[in-house]
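ok trying this again, last paste got cut off
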Amino acid sequence: MGWLFLKVLLVGVSFSGFLYPLVDFCFNGKTRGQKPNFVIILADDIGWGDLGANWAETKDTTNLDKIASEGMRFVDFHAAASTCSPSRASLLTGRLGLRNGVTHNFAVTSVGGLPLNETTLAEVLQQAGYVTGMIGFDYYFGIPYSHDMGCTDTPGYNHPPCPACPQGDGPSRNLQRDCYTDVALPLYENLNIVEQPVNLSSLAQKYAEKATQFIQQASTSGRPFLLYVGLAHMHVPLPVTQLPAAPQGGRLYGAGLREMDGLVGQIKDKVDRTAKENTFLWFTGDNGPWAQKCELAGSVGPFTGLWQTRQGGCPAKQTTWEGGHRVPALAYWPGRVPVNVTSTALLSVLDIFPTVVALAQASLPQGRRFDGVDVSEVLFGWSQPGHRVLFHPNSGAAGEFGALQTVRLERYKAFYITGGARACDGSTGPELQHKFPLIFNLEDDIAEAVPLERGGAEYQAVLPEIRKVLADVLQDIANDNISKADYTQDPSVTPCCNPYHIACRCQAT
């Protein structure tokens, strides 16, 4: 089982689950000081346009929209990568994949994970007296990777598949014929498989129950807490047999979105009833929507990457186009975070680590560099700008995994390599290298449709600074204490509780 629990199960292909402290281990009645609690909720493959507060066409996120109206909404917030594992590893460490070693997704049979010499957010908070919920910390409950993966016979580890639902077909028919309901996926409690195949229809409710149980216990424990909720939603829709009926013409994706929204609502309601004034809730996503799944994928909103679509392929997940890494984000902390505020600050998932560490009155680990920054002043309405520069690592559609060849400099964005991920129609965009980068002015061209003219004054004015900041960060990484992840795979490590069960048996048996 070392492949799974060497460090944190979070950075599996698409880790889903959440963690809460073991009662006997953590809740010892110590008096809590003034340190805040933290609830961090990370949605999988959610689109910027999936949030109703962002995109008027979306009607499925009542609870998230309420959080937006009661807190702060960020409209220029970015994942640290455009695929799951590197983005989640960056949340844990505050460091890009080229530093922490996690540059692309782990597979179901991966024997490694986040390198052991990396220091996680929860390890830092433990030293500051926090009850932390995450494997390698106190306690784990969840599934080890995306909910469309598991231990099965041929054709492999993505069976049964969940293809895109046929255009124009009813959602009930699609659910019965095309979308899986039974995947040989283990549900873990600590190191024990408590259910396999997991019942995906009840998974969201199990998460809600465990999360609210943790909040209730922690609120009376006398110690500050960190609760991390890494959702399976919205990778592709989970079975929706227990969801309220979809509106006329509604999609399976919309039903799943409402389920996720309800789960978040239950967690937020529990916070409000127990630890409202001293709990900071942060909601965001790990990357943009998985567009090749067609109507089983989310919405990129206005970030359509039109330059790339003309070349072919999709400008969403696995790409450095805005649709691949610009994600919805909300901050909620009554009495601290301003109410009903929209922030245009340039922020990142990378910022969660240093911000939480600062608010917890803890110290950043020594001997390593961080790509995130403490954005407390933005959260509390004292400052607006956020980052001046962000780097978007290549995540599968073009370029070397983790390479920093897309640069955001204020309102400008420069591509040294472009490419499109697999689209709904099966097409992919070619990888193109640009000695002179394509530069877009996102303030004027949010759809990334027309790059600046290479010979124009605006292009020539910004190019030297883009080259400088990219050279500087690459030199900084070269001088840093960097890690290397183990991507070795071995089918024998795939967890399986019953090799004789039709949905759980492995070829190795």
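PB: full thing came through this time. Residues 2-387 form a domain with the Alkaline Phosphatase, subunit A fold (CATH 3.40.720.10).
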